[in-house]
Amino acid sequence: MLNWNLILDETELATVFPGEYARFVRPIREGLIVFLEGLPESYQKEILARQASLPPDTTISHRLAMLARECPVLHKLGQVLARDQRLSAQLREHLRELESLEPVVSDATISQIVGQELGPLDRLGIRLAPAIAEASVAVVIPFEPAQGNETEGKRGGVLKVLKPGIEERLELELDLLGRVGWHLDERCEELKIPRLDYEDAFEQIREKLANEVRLDHEQQHLVEAAKFYADEPRVHIPAVLEFCTPRVTAMERISGWKVTDQHLNGHCGRRQLADLVVREMIARPMFSLAAHPLFHGDPHAGNLFLTDEKRLGILDWSLVGSINPRERVAIAKIIQYAVMFEPTGIAQVLENLGRRKPARRPSLVAVVERAIRRVRQGTLPGLSWLVDLLDDAVHTAGLRVSADLMVLRKSLHTLEGVVAEIAGAPFRIDDVLLADFVGHFAAELPRRLVAPAESREFSTRLSNLDLAQTWLASPLALARFWMGQSFDMLNACCEINELVV
Known about the structure:
The chain contains 22 helices and 11 strands. By secondary structure, it is an alpha+beta fold.
């Protein structure tokens, strides 16, 4: 068996994980080693052979991106991290290549798979063109009406076809994720990482990623997404066509560019596109009156297109999430308590959000107090602030949230990097969400006049009782603010005094 412990150099890895990620270099390296050593030896040799074929001066960033190409799970992780501004610019540049790769599966293999799934293509009245893109689990192939069928109402589109053997490969790698989680649980103290029950967390990730190869699920998600965005002409969801199977999706072809590749004229146009992405990908599901609104779980730049008609095309609906009413009420309550500078209420809501085992209460209170301090210092208590709070609660207090909230956290982190590149300048997601909140709140006012005090049948999920509670608590909130400010200043003075001494 190959010794990846000798091959993966910790010092080199540290060069691409700067800043706050630096402390995770050792666990990342050990996790990679456990993952790679769990692959069949034939796979390991293929990976090593491709690494050996690279020039000797190839950077570690390039090598990591090449490694990600070889493994569907690492490929998906690379797509998620490709726009993460906390990583080195060189690594992000190479990881962006994973968003859409040149096809390597042969046209003959694709034709064979399509024939097995759909039957003779001449009976369907279509003919295949060469593949145009390859992703972590599938290949995308355009098709056109066969000669003689152009006038019979046949139309072209694309087929998304699972790669040969990908189901077994993905299942193997998802099993290895559990092994990585178990290893990290056993090595928390030595690696100096929080005790988070990594095995359980990776099991939640497994449940979501398993849907990547269930194209029949994605077909249903596409239908649901089309209904969800039906009243928004600025958004284009590919229409599902009539010939589909669990391994092949036939859909409308969308022409355009990745949202980060487009060249809009002027700063204003770029910000408008960034604004549209935030409103439709986050604000729309967050403020929806639907009980279980769908949101896209994998919004990397390769899945977001600016179409030829200047619409936002949203592709690849295999990974999705849905925030239930209880979770959306919890989000509204947390932000309400943040405005009131009330840490006890936030801690209680977070405990109620936890699953399986309770968070460590003293650590959770400390996490909430840090978050409240940031609000006192001028941070808007919006969704980005909330995700940072959840991250801190997970890492520090052992909070375990639902798989859908985990997907929401991942989606927001991905979108932060994407919209920053679209706008080409500092762009705050929470500013857009606040404007949407104000708009929804204003639209709710007439109905609030006749609604029961405890009703939450509003887009904002805030009841009239919540609003009254916030209003009545405003004097106390002001007192908490000034007391907190005084305490922060006292601490700062003490720290300065210690440095001087």
